[in-house]
Amino acid sequence: MVPIDSDGIVLARLARPTTEQPVRLAVLSDLHVATRARGTDRLFHRTEDRAATAIELLNAAEPDLVCFDGDLTKDGEPWNFDRFDDLVADLEAPFVATPGNHDVPKAGDEHETPSVSSFEDRYAPEPLPFVKSVGGIDLVVCNTATVPDGSLEDEHRGALSRPQLEWLETTLQVVPNPVVAFHHNLLPILESDVVRRSPWQTFSLRNGETVFELLDRHGVPLVISGHHHIPATVSAGSLTQLIAPAACAYPLAHLVLDIDGQGTTVRLVPHAGVDDRQEAYDAMVAGSPLRHTFARLVDETLTAAPLVDATADRTQSSSTTGRRRRFQS
């Protein structure tokens, strides 16, 4: 387990986006709030405390906006959404959210998961997709967890529906300074054919190449996602993908982005102490070989940080999580 100071570490210093009016954006992803479950590498019995601590730290950090980037709940249980509501009531900053694959109805659900429209009513200023402007930044929030034909109900992979692609095509022509956020990953974190196979393929968008071409054509500088539980940056074309860590699993952290006229500084901030982080690390390495690989990739990321350092006019490529590449689906 890599030690992290309580103030966190600089994960990346990006040349873009910039804004004349400084903006602080916080990102929490994959909280997986669970009130009736225990164990696994997500330590479900700790999720409420993790979320509460993160919110307390965010109140001290005073962000201009908080983005909950999906998987608010264990598996879309109504009681876990209610508990999330209790927790987020203590958040002093305004917030928006997009659903993750664990927040939407799935074919195998043994409970009645709230609809996406219900999610939007609770956590979005308007139906998804939408733009939330703060300072000089336009946060463009999309939904990759569901598509109109219901084809994602039997899997946990994501996609951007055709109506959202059409909306993005129009919206990105008029918003002056976009940062795009959705749950699933646009760019894979590994330069390997393994990302095309299960379970690695689960983390990416089914139509990722189409989405990438659209965003790159419009010069979008930053895409924020979650889902993978591994903090990472991946750059291709005009954009950088920033993957937020899991709030519930090792390294038990969230992101704070400070955006100003010089660029964007991304800080990874832990919301758990050394003993709790060790417990989360041990739970991950005790899991499946895939989870053991996740732990190794997280530690490589933390050791290599900052993954991108625009202030030094260089990109660190010693870690697989911080390199430039062409699109690979």
Average of the residue pLDDT scores:
92
Please list the strands of the largest sheet in the order they lie side by side: 4-3-2-11-12-1-13-14
Mind telling me the CATH class?
A: Alpha Beta
* Silhouette: globular
H/I helix tally: 7
Oligomer: single chain
Give the CA-CA distance, first to last residue: 30 Å
Overview in brief:
Strands 4-3-2-11-12-1-13-14 form an eight-stranded mixed sheet, with no helix packed on it. The protein has a six-stranded mixed sheet with strand order 5-6-7-8-10-9, with no helix packed on it.
Describe the structure using short key phrases.
25% helix, six-stranded mixed beta sheet, 329 residues, single chain, disordered C terminus, 7 helices, eight-stranded mixed beta sheet, Purple Acid Phosphatase, chain A, domain 2, alpha/beta
Describe it.
- With 329 residues, this protein is an alpha/beta fold.
- It has a single domain, classed as Purple Acid Phosphatase, chain A, domain 2.
- The chain is 25% helix and 20% strand.
- It contains seven helices and 14 strands.
- The strands form two sheets. The chain has an eight-stranded mixed β-sheet with strand order 4-3-2-11-12-1-13-14, with no helix packed on it.
- Strand 5 and strand 6 form a beta hairpin.
- Helix 1 packs parallel to helix 2.
- The chain is globular, with a radius of gyration of 18 Å.
- The two termini are 30 Å apart.
- The C terminus is likely disordered.
